[in-house]
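CO-FOLDING WORKSHEET

Operator: S.A.
Ligand of interest: adenosine-5'-triphosphate
Run index: 208
Mode: holo prediction, single chain
Checklist:
[x] sequence pasted
[x] SMILES validated
[ ] output reviewed
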Amino acid sequence: MQIIIDGLGKRFNREWIFRNFTLELNVGNSYTFVGPNGSGKSTLLQVISGVMPLTEGKITYQLSKKALDEDDWYRQIVLAAPYLELIEEFSLIELLNFHAGFKPFKAGITHDEILQRLELDSSKDKAIKYFSSGMKQRLKLALAFYSNVPVVMLDEPTSNLDAKWSAWYREEVQRLASDQLVLLCSNVPAEYDFCEKIINVGDYKPER
Ligand SMILES: Nc1ncnc2c1ncn2[C@@H]1O[C@H](COP(=O)(O)OP(=O)(O)OP(=O)(O)O)[C@@H](O)[C@H]1O
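OUTPUT RECEIVED:
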């Protein structure tokens, strides 16, 4: 899996958030977008994931050197972010079943196994809307960690997590297979200090 970003720019109204962003992302690597609040980390991640349109430039998604079209690209990623909601009406087990219908979990990872790893066995029939913010965040991360997809994107991964679950995040994110591409947005070094490539999005803000 490879993502080739060429001269990417995003503008809201008259304000350019970033411009001339060029980067090649390759499977087997982890990348983090850093930068001050409002510098455009989440915007860049959303544009690369395809949930937000770009203003200029080009992004090519390639699998085994062949360009993917948009529908196929969507199947290759899981994005976990504070601004993406889970389906609140579902119970936890319904949500796992629903998710697995689109993006199956990795070989050997059963739904029961996920419930145990999340220590949420006793909440499997509880509606997501009654989950605490930390429980929801654990669940979003689990969907990202355990889905069998080549690209894992995480924005502010430890938001709402306590020390125990932040440590779980660190363990799991570093365990992601060498055949995956990991893309993070963060301002918290403990979330990304293991990462090979750190990119400051603020460097791509055009002068006014
Ligand atoms: N839909 C939108 N319409 C207009 N402006 C937006 C929109 N979304 C984001 N912005 C602006 O784009 C800029 C970058 O926001 P973004 O959320 O990407 O920053 P960030 O680096 O992720 O910030 P933080 O560290 O605070 O999470 C901000 O000035 C923000 O107000």
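REVIEW:
The mean pLDDT is 95.
The first strand starts at residue 2 and ends at 12.
[x] output reviewed
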